[in-house]
Amino acid sequence: MNRLPITRSHRLATVAIGLGLFFDIYEIFLAGTLSTVLVAQFHLDKAILPAVLASTFVGMFVGAILLGRLADRIGRRRAFLVSLGVYSLFSLLGAASIGPWTLMVSRFFAGVGVGAEPAVSDTYLGDLLPPRKRGLYTGIAYTLSFVGVPTVGFLAAWLVPTGPEAWRWLFVIGAAGAVIVFLLRTGLPESPRWLESVGRHEEAERIVARFEAEAGGDLPEPVADETPNTTGSVGSLLRPPYRRRTIMMSVFHLLQTFGYYGFGTLVPIVLAAKGYPIVQSLLFSGITFVGYPVGAALSLPIIERVERKHLVIVSGLGMAVCGLAFGFASSEALILTFGFLYTAVSNVFSNAFHVYQAEIFPTGLRSTAAGATYSLSRLSSAAMPFVLVPLLHATNSAVLFAVVAAAMVGVALDVGLLGPRTTGRDLELVNI
């Protein structure tokens, strides 16, 4: 698998993963985008709004732990299908919510469904893709997925003015799209690295033979030190060399969510606090959110040329600077400019770290480790509304983004001090 060129199956897997991730991103930004609408629809007060925003992230925390581990037990492909099935069902139920409590319950279980989607997707693509193209094609998958962010913004700006119940169609659209991706993913091959790690050697060999046939059989000879690492004990994550990496990614995910999800989920509320009406704030959000796929696309030419660790650090610091500028901005032009720049830089950051977190753990624990540490970002995201929303109401957007900037500086220090280098290296050699 390390020696293969990119084949048709690699490309199909990249597209199928990207479309599935689209709905994870869609779900994450849905509640924040609709927050001002839901306040009016269900007469939410300042106490209940953070709970509504947090419910999806609490579900994602649970899902990331459960389904991340499940993917190392039953396989990446089956875990994908379980996650999309659960998400689709409860997203549809969310459309029928009759009050804030039914909305929170449906959002929680929809979050469980997509909670492990990024971690398992990162793991699956990391298992499948050759080292020279691992960053590029994982970046392509996330670039597809981030189209979901402006999609949410513009759909909300279009649908919300049509009637008081129009927001429900956003949940229906999410459920219907997930069913289509579910059907598409049934054709994905299982990860041969995972099959090999659990002793299913013949199945792994058949899948590898399929990739080799697509490649035409013109492969270089294997490198002598390509030794598989299939460590399967969860306790290994707390012992060298993985203990340092587990601590690094745990701190990383607790902090990065304030910069990444903090902006995306709270920007409509921030714009409302700056005095813009609901429909205009939704339109501004949609324009700002265009930066997400643009930034993801901009990362593609550099993600294999710059060491991933360094790219995470520099882009994280860029988010801190753009966030402060957005918080202090007062004119429409500056708000849109720095909002766009923030989202663009944040997706260079996102693409880099999603590739990175799937490179630094062994095959038998790759999904478990990525899911467990990534789950902390969901927990932090669940706590975020209870911290940042009251902070915004008590102070102003400038103070809020000062807190966000401090969190991103912490991320840069964490990765700089504890993170290994990975770019262009075989997974087995990174994890000896």
Task: Tell me what you see in this structure.
- With 432 residues, the protein is mostly helical.
- It has one domain (8-430): Growth Hormone, Chain: A (Up-down Bundle), CATH 1.20.1250.
- Helices cover 75% and strands 0% of the residues.
- It contains 18 helices and no strands.
- It has helices at residues 8-42, 49-74, 76-95, 100-114, 117-128, 134-145, 148-159, 168-185, 192-197, 201-215, 242-273, 278-289, 291-299, 308-328, 332-357, 366-394, 397-418, 427-430.
- The protein starts with 7 loop residues before the first helix and ends with a helix.
- 58% of the residues are buried.
- The model is unreliable at 224-231 (pLDDT under 50).
Compact summary:
This protein has helices at residues 8-42, 49-74, 76-95, 100-114, 117-128, 134-145, 148-159, 168-185, 192-197, 201-215, 242-273, 278-289, 291-299, 308-328, 332-357, 366-394, 397-418, 427-430. It is mostly helical and 432 residues long. The protein starts with 7 loop residues before the first helix and ends with a helix.
CATH superfamily placement: MFS general substrate transporter like domains
Coarse structural class: mainly alpha
Low-confidence stretches: 224-231
Overall outline = globular
In percent, how much strand structure appears in the residues? under 5%
